[in-house]
Specification:
This protein is of the alpha/beta class. It is built from 23 helices and 21 strands. The chain folds into three domains: 136 residues, no CATH class; 115 residues, NAD(P)-binding Rossmann-like Domain (Rossmann fold, 3-Layer(aba) Sandwich), CATH 3.40.50.720; 228 residues, Rossmann fold (3-Layer(aba) Sandwich).
Length: 647
């Protein structure tokens, strides 16, 4: 859209533009005179022909500048595109001079040799003016800027990202002074980029940093894989210097690399997951205008589900959770981001049938994402009744209500601990999976399915926040076993894949498994976090092994031996074929358990769970502890506890 400029500012712009155009013409005249001197050894004698030629040069250079829009270029922002336009204007002008000389040789006497030299001189003089102006402007700007403490930095990576970064450091008062690059490309050794030399290879970083008195290292290789980044971090650590990293490759490709984007290396960088695209047309088509219910909406997975669903304009978004404060904050965040969206926060317990019924009757959700669950393995070993009530019975109550009220899709958020469960939490989540699969038969018009995946980075109560708190308190990082491994995924990626899975027609009545990549040793995770924290502590001293807790496995699995995984249209989603699913009926069993719990027969329910999953009682005496707990309280005084809905 064109902007009309009025007033003194607009008048100044017009005067400046005319002045610049005249300047190009004057430079053309000077270049032509210099070309005559270069070719003939002397200035041309004063004559009408000479004045006619100089007048023609002035007009042609003036006109070419207008034609190629050179007058609108801000010299302090000159780019390659401006240089190309200058070249085109110069060559076109010279061609016009040659044509005029050929057509009117007597009227405009000039030799082809003079025109060629004139072309070179004009380009060089104009280019020199541009460079001088830009360099002077940047020097004046730097001299007038507030003085900042200068940090001498060594840049790892002399590619596009390093180039953009150093250019900004040289042009703006960033507080950084690049002393050199290190890069493993042999062709770049000794080269200069924006006047900064490539000093050597990455393996020599410590020696180079010491020789050039670097204060800090910047890793400017956004395309580095997690493995490559881990190696770079190890090399940086040996130098004893602080180090930072640049943003992802998408920003580099867009030319959007700034010093302000520098940040510390995060543990997620070393684990590595591909970036996700939050807004997808197919998700918009599925969610737009529809009523969506998310249980456990205040938890880590539930809140991210709410964020990503909100991007696709649902008609109404119902956020169901028992945690009042956390629900308040996610509601406030969504209202700020999506003021036009109808958001309904519901504080409630998923095992409270009247509350669940009211939600379905009033808001008639067409899509239900069931993320409410107890997740902490040792906590559920100590509280098996609450795990059964929330994870198994709660899933049954929500999913059955969905089927009775015409919900079109019901998606259960499951866990890798449901595979051959060795603990109460995993067993109750496996029951939840079986509940959903059996309800598919009961309500064939509703698409039911479960999405199974491992740990997510940074979720409430997960290992990384615990490690970070221990670091802040100066305590050693507690790891259960030196060989313990877990699968990890970022929360946004897991949620995106859950939503994409819900779009697959073949997901109906199936369990989906997300591709979690390779399992990560928790010991390595702790060691990496120690290194990245800058704490100068030997991992052998900074890590404390506590032993596996009740119910914990050494290694998690994503599929059972009798489950077959099949590829889908979504790259990181596989659908599982479980031969034993149809042979296990759990709905009547879960219904009976709910009645037993209401009448105080907790030990009956626990014994039934142990018979169904005998591996979960391995050395933990769950049944005996439950019976002891029942003897501690009188049945009349026992209350059905409110199940916390977390993710």
């Amino acid at each position: 859209m064109a902007v009309e400029m009025h007033g003194p500012g607009g008048a100044w712009f017009r005067v400046r533009r005319v002045g610049v155009l005249v300047g190009y013409g004057v430079v053309g005249v000077l270049a032509h005179l210099a070309a005559n001197v270069a070719v003939t050894g002397t200035l041309p004698a004063t004559s009408p022909e000479v004045f006619r030629v100089l007048g023609l040069v002035l007009l042609i250079r003036f006109g070419a500048s207008i034609l190629f829009d050179l007058s609108t270029s801000q010299w302090r922002f000159i780019s390659v595109a401006d240089v190309i336009r200058l070249g085109m204007a110069t060559v076109s002008g010279s061609a016009a001079l040659v044509l005029a000389a050929r057509l009117q040789q007597g009227f405009f006497p000039m030799s082809l040799q003079v025109v060629l030299v004139d072309t070179i001189f004009y380009l060089c003089i104009t280019g020199a003016l541009w460079i001088t102006y830009r360099a002077s402007f940047e020097r004046v700007r730097l001299s007038r800027s507030p003085r900042k403490p200068t940090v001498r930095v060594l840049v790892v990576g002399a590619g596009e990202a390093g180039n953009l970064l150093v250019r900004e450091m040289e042009r703006f008062p960033t507080g950084y002074h690049p002393v050199g690059f290190v890069d493993d490309d042999p062709a770049k050794q000794g080269a200069r980029i924006h006047g900064v030399r490539v000093l050597g290879r990455v393996r020599d970083l410590a020696k180079i940093a010491m020789a050039h008195k670097a204060d800090e290292v910047i890793i400017a290789i956004p395309s580095a894989s997690p493995k490559e980044l881990r190696e770079l971090v190890s090399t940086c650590e040996r130098s004893g210097l602080k180090f930072k990293v640049l943003p992802g490759i998408i920003e580099v490709l867009a030319g959007d690399v700034r010093v302000g984007q520098l940040r510390d290396v995060r543990i997620e960088d070393l684990l590595g997951r591909d970036p996700i695209q939050l807004e997808l047309p197919e998700l918009s088509a599925d969610l737009k205008g529809r009523s969506v219910l998310i249980t456990g909406a205040a938890g880590s997975i539930g809140s991210e589900l709410a964020r990503q669903v909100a991007l696709h304009e649902p008609g109404i978004l119902v956020l169901f959770d028992q945690a009042e404060t956390d629900l308040f904050f996610i509601e406030m965040e969504l209202r700020e981001e999506h003021p036009e969206l109808r958001i309904v926060p519901v504080i409630g317990d998923i095992v409270d049938s009247p509350t669940v019924e009211r939600v379905f009757e009033e808001y008639k959700p067409q899509r239900v994402f069931h993320a409410a669950a107890y997740k902490h393995v040792p906590m559920m070993e100590a509280n098996p009744i609450q795990a059964i009530r929330n994870n198994a019975i709660g899933t049954w109550k929500v999913a059955d209500a969905a089927g009775r009220h015409g919900t079109e899709k019901f998606v259960l958020v499951s866990t890798d601990k449901a595979v051959r469960p060795a603990n109460v939490m995993g067993a109750t989540k496996r029951l939840a999976e079986l509940v959903v699969l059996e309800l598919q038969e009961k309500y064939p018009e509703m698409m039911c399915g479960a999405v199974r995946f491992g740990n997510v980075l940074g979720s409430n109560g997960s290992v990384i926040p615990i490690f970070q708190r221990q670091l802040e308190e100066g305590k050693p990082l507690t790891v259960t076993h030196p060989e313990a491994t877990r699968y990890f995924m970022t929360i946004p990626e897991a949620v995106q894949l859950i939503l994409q899975t819900s779009l697959l027609p073949e997901f109906r009545g199936r369990i989906a498994m997300l591709d979690m990549g390779e399992p990560v040793r928790i010991r390595d995770l702790a060691a990496n976090l120690l290194r990245l924290s800058g704490v100068s502590r030997d991992p052998a001293e900074g890590i404390k092994y506590t032993g596996l807790r009740p119910g914990e496995k050494l290694h998690e699995e994503l599929t059972a031996p009798d489950e077959l995984a099949h590829e889908t249209a979504v790259t990181k989603v596989r659908l599982l074929e479980t031969p034993g699913n149809s042979g296990i009926k759990v709905l009547s069993c879960i219904s009976n358990w709910a009645n037993d719990l209401e009448t105080g027969r907790d030990e009956v329910v626990v014994d039934a769970l142990l018979k169904q999953f005998p591996a979960i009682n391995n050395g933990t005496n769950i049944g005996a502890r439950t019976r002891a707990a029942n003897r501690t309280f009188e049945p009349s005084a026992r209350q059905i506890p409110v199940a916390r809905v977390d993710t």
